[in-house]
Amino acid sequence: MLLTWWRRWRRKRLLQSGKLDDAAFVAAVEGVRAARALDAASRRRLRELVIVFLAEKEITGMGGFSVDDRVCYLIAVQACLLVLELGIECYDGWTSVYVYPGSFREADGEAEGGVFAGVAMQGGAVALSWTDAVDGAADGRDGFNPVLHEFAHKLDMADGAANGVPPLPDDMDPAEWGREFADAFAELGKDVDDGRRTRIDPYGATNPAEFFAVLSETFFEKPQAVRKEMPAVHELLVRYYRQDPMA
Ligand SMILES: [Zn+2]
Prior knowledge:
54% of the residues lie in helices and 8% in strands.
């Protein structure tokens, strides 16, 4: 309770100071299609979230990568776009963002680990590949965006388990979410098994957590595809994110 109060007070102070490199913020917003499309009021809200995000998260270069303003703002703008209507509290409980120059192997000593464009750790850091982050932002309509993807995992993990169900607002029914997502997940899995070309990245068929992360990046980059393929899930994403990138 005390921590919550203190955090709120600190955030209020941060916003009063209003400290931000506005040129870097605008450049980052212009580089992300879904952020560029926001109206003036939403942009102002995004700016506030970015102030708090940059003050509270530590963005560190790995593997010799040096982090500058462009890196920080491009990551912050996209991370905050996800929580534009949810609030920055969704990212409480962890602080580190690691940025590698390119795709990387997970450094936890697991022998079979693959090569990653991004990783979100349960209760811990987000790791990102800078070249993939830049690629992801460059084409805002291809449905590939590892920054949105990894931060969507952090939303999912906010209640502990990465299971494809983030903590939902009171006016949403977890049973309905579970049912609609399970149906759409099964359908994508079947299409992938049958070798059909899918408009949703087949990686989403890996498990329910990847399904939610893939659908989140697709929701912001090519929402028509989600609405066409999975209208019920699209509707739930609109209600959850309280945004409609189609609109
Ligand atoms: Zn993932």
